[in-house]
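Re: Re: token formats

Sure, here are both.
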Amino acid sequence: MHFFNIPLMTMLILAITFPTMANAVSTTFQDNDADISKTVSAFQAALGNPNNGNAPGPLANGRRQINWDAGIVPFNMPGDFFNARVTRGAVFNSTGGSQFRVSNDGFDNKFNSINPTYSDQFQTFSAPRLFTPFGTNILDVNFFVSATNVPATVSGFGAIFTDVDLPNTTKLDFLDSSGASLLSLFAPTNPQGLSFIGATFSTERIAQIRITSGNTAIGPNDDPINGIDIVVLDDFLYGEPQPVPEPSTMLLLGSGIIGLGLWKRKTRGANTSTKP
């Protein structure tokens, strides 16, 4: 393998096109105190102001939030609800399941239709509703320019979990556009309380978040003594989704760098002379 024969400009293009996990610079946030609001506020500030709500994107600054509490959010929520109906640029897919549930403060108070004790066991950060994938404990969040089908990335993401009983089970995995891992962050335990984790990146962009809630899909038998930990979710917070650059953009950038290098080499050759 003749690595050192690779032109310098080509290596530069490879470095630009294929960033590595080692280059990722993140700031992480976590809290499991009785009051997590200060940490959540600090994370909101790190993502940026204002809260852009349902405004069509992309916007230059600010963040998006999902708190599930609007009356229009159905108990059986479609995965694209928060981009197709409520335009906040987030689409959900589940691993091993295909459904999502948002608790209802009427007939289903904090999922007490599944287990009557859950209304006391699961706390809320923003009352009264909570969210969970159904049939699995693993959820993928993909980002789009708000109100469009244009793939997007974000600068940071955070989530609030309720009733994390067991350590090293509930986590966020941050992935870039190539599917490479940028960071894995575990939620601190807080039985019957709230846990917050999140991260922002100064150089990398997040294309997907994989959320692992506990170690078991929601059901009636939360039993941490015997190793079964059922965890559900409250608020999601993330940076304003920005469109993913088209491949042609990166190609033009690479072509420009190569062309500049060749032009400089040709110019140096043309200006070189020898004395008679």
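Second one below.
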Amino acid sequence: MKDDRFLIITGVSGSGKTVTSRFLEDLGYYCMDNLPSKLIPSFVKLWSDKEVEIGKVALIVDVRESGFSSEFAKVLKSIREKISPRVLFLETSDSVLIKRFSESRRPHPLSKGRSIMEAVALERKRLAEIKNLSDEVIDTSQMSILELKKLLTHKYAKKRSIKLQVMIVSFGHKYGVPLDSDLVFDTRFLPNPFYIDNLKDKTGKSPAVKNFILNSAETKKYLVEFLRHIDYLMPKFVDERKANLTISIGCTGGKHRSVVLADVLRNHLKDNNYSVRVNHRDINK
């Protein structure tokens, strides 16, 4: 029986090994890219003897390593005497590979003095034995990144699902938009408590400020559309297997309107069983 705690990812260049590596990290795998074949047995011993605190491993190996095609086949046979790694071979059609290399403008690892077609053909020839030794061949020719992620999730996430972590940041535009924002919403058009004498020096945590903002007809109308938009987007991010999402809500100083709406959004998302944290970045400025 194959041990899904130890994956070896290989295949033709441009088939999606980098995307696979990044997503396996999200699934809890410790990923190593382009580890020389001769070092793999040493790592296997450390892992199997539990001398390294690594639960799940994914090694990404391919023709970037000099002598890979001859060395790896021998190494794989030797390590299979100690553990039962699962070897995934990613495959893609020639036409798709040519399109991907042309669009990315990245050179094929074997393209020195060769056309893309010649490099692809040579790589397939060198990988033929390794492909035959693989436990599974995945053809990514017609797969989107999302479809590849769903396939990997089905195979290797087991019962564990990736929990989307949502960070809501309230901020003041005069201090700058948070650089890690995925979504940014501007609330400067809403009624501003700053111009109300008894509210000016309070924050969006004050019940009086909350009542002023939330009882505004403009705010009530906006919240309907705002929350509807959020409810539409959230399942999309979940389906995309996004691990972290930062929603930034800004007003002029980050003290009143953005704070109130950030708290409203937090409560709304929590009611819908999302994992949410809030950072009122500029509330005390």
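Residues 217-239 form the longest helix (23 residues). The chain has a mean pLDDT of 89.
- S.
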